[in-house]
């Protein structure tokens, strides 16, 4: 999620993209693959196996032509080569996350792909953004013109992410508000899941259970408001949950919504990712979220748009990657002066072999990794 100012009302947008009934898993997965430009999975064959007398194909029979890749597949392959594969290889060594558990990604937008590659063995991913998730977009009910428009717009956004590696606030807000494009976060996350090799087993709306201070899934219906959503995924023998929660992270909102505030505090106790967060956390009106992360996260991976360097050091020793000189021209030039000074002082920073956020050039992109040091308990003297 990329915000320009705190907003209370956006998550309360009455976005009701309904499903007549909960689609079965095969339909949901087929939708996800369709969004991603992937061919449908073959159905189980009912053909009788060939007998020993069945003649073998002639060696002179021409080989079948390779299927033509969709524009979405081409864009994904380009992203994988430039960012995805280098990111996974880097994270396996430099982040080395433990298997299982939850990975937390505030200010995420629908960027499931980055957190899933940074923490590839997590059991649950929690993404928080201010844009409503929306329901899966049913393609079968669209007119030919509407379907063509949807595919064209989706392809454009897919290609744009492949180049940038993040979502622009302007695009997210425009697509969410559009009644024609319907490029909301849920179809994008479903497409990411399919491209990452997951099967999408279910998509369900989430609502807050005030008694548990937890967002829980419900049964989709025509009355469902799909502000927040859960994706149930599977790959091989592994089941994964993705919770996308539409939530205003500003102090003003959280102070008036104690259940959501407690939920945020609980989430912040997990390994956390910050990416292209527009330098929001240092703002005075995001102090609650900032404090939760500083006091709770056992591991934090971020670019320069996340916490200020002084707050990173409160968590633990900070390891610097790449090179950081100054904030991107879109933001306050005084942002992260202490971080820039740390990069100058530490001349032996580790390389960053992929572009990650706003800063693309090899001599400008940066990441910081910080691990909380275990608290040393005093041993009573005998």
Structure overview:
The protein is of the alpha/beta class and 382 residues long. The protein has a domain at 10-36 and 70-297. It is 32% helix and 16% strand. It has a 6-stranded mixed sheet with strand order 1-2-6-5-3-4. Helix 8 (258-267) packs parallel to helix 9. The termini are far apart. Residues 1-23 and 44-64 have low confidence and may be disordered.
Structural class: alpha/beta
Q: In which order are the strands of the major sheet placed?
A: 1-2-6-5-3-4
User: What's the helix-strand series?
Assistant: HHEHEHHHEEEEHHEHEHEHE
Query: What is the rounded Rg?
Result: 23 Å
Uncertain segments: 1-23, 44-64
Mean of all residue-level pLDDT scores: 82
Share of helical residues: 25-40%
Number of helices: 11
Overall outline: globular
Total beta-strand segments: 10
Main sheet specs: 6 strands, mixed
Determine the strand fraction and express it as a percent band: 15-25%
- Tell me the span between the first and last alpha carbons: 54 Å
Give the arrangement of secondary structure elements.
Elements: H1 25-35, H2 71-94, E1 102-106, H3 112-118, E2 124-129, H4 144-164, H5 169-177, H6 185-195, E3 199-209, E4 214-217, E5 228-235, E6 238-246, H7 251-255, H8 258-267, E7 272-274, H9 287-296, E8 299-302, H10 309-315, E9 318-322, H11 337-345, E10 366-371
Helix pairs in contact: 1-6, 2-4, 8-9
In short:
The chain is α/β, with parallel strands linked by helices. The protein has a domain at about 10-35 and about 70-295.
What distinguishing features does this structure have?
4-stranded mixed β-sheet; 382 residues; single chain; alpha/beta
């Amino acid at each position: 999620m990329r915000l320009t100012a705190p907003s209370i009302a956006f998550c309360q947008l009455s976005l009701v993209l309904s499903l007549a009934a909960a689609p079965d898993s095969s339909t949901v997965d087929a939708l996800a693959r369709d969004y991603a430009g992937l061919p449908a999975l073959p159905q189980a064959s009912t053909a009788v196996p060939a007998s020993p007398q069945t003649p073998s194909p002639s060696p002179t029979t021409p080989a079948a032509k390779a299927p033509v890749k969709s524009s979405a597949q081409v864009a994904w392959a380009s992203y994988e080569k430039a960012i995805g594969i280098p990111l996974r290889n880097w994270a396996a060594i430099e982040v080395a996350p433990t298997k299982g558990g939850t990975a937390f990604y505030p200010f995420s937008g629908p960027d499931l792909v980055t957190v899933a590659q940074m923490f590839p063995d997590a059991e649950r991913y929690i993404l928080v953004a201010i844009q409503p998730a929306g329901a899966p977009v049913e393609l079968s009910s669209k007119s030919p013109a509407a379907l063509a428009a949807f595919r064209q717009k989706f392809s454009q956004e897919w290609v744009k992410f492949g180049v940038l590696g993040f979502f622009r606030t302007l695009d997210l807000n425009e697509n969410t508000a559009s009644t024609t494009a319907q490029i909301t976060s849920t179809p994008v996350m479903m497409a990411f899941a399919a491209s990452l090799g997951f099967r999408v087993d279910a998509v369900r709306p989430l609502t807050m259970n005030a008694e548990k201070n937890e967002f829980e899934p419900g049964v989709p219906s025509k009355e469902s408001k799909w502000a927040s959503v859960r994706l149930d995924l599977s790959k091989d023998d592994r089941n994964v949950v993705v919770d996308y929660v539409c939530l205003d992270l500003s102090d003003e909102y959280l102070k008036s919504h104690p259940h959501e505030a407690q939920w945020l505090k609980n989430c912040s106790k997990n390994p956390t990712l910050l990416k292209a967060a527009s330098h929001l956390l240092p703002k005075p009106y995001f102090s609650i979220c900032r404090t939760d992360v500083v006091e709770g996260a056992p591991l934090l991976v971020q670019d320069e748009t996340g916490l200020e360097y002084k707050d990173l050091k409160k968590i633990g020793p900070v390891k610097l990657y790449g090179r950081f000189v100054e904030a991107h021209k879109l933001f306050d030039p005084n942002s992260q002066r202490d971080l820039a000074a740390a990069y100058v002082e530490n001349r032996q920073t580790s390389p960053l072999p992929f572009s990650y956020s706003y800063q693309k050039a090899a001599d400008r992109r940066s990441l910081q990794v910080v691990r909380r040091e275990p608290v040393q308990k005093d041993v009573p003297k005998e």
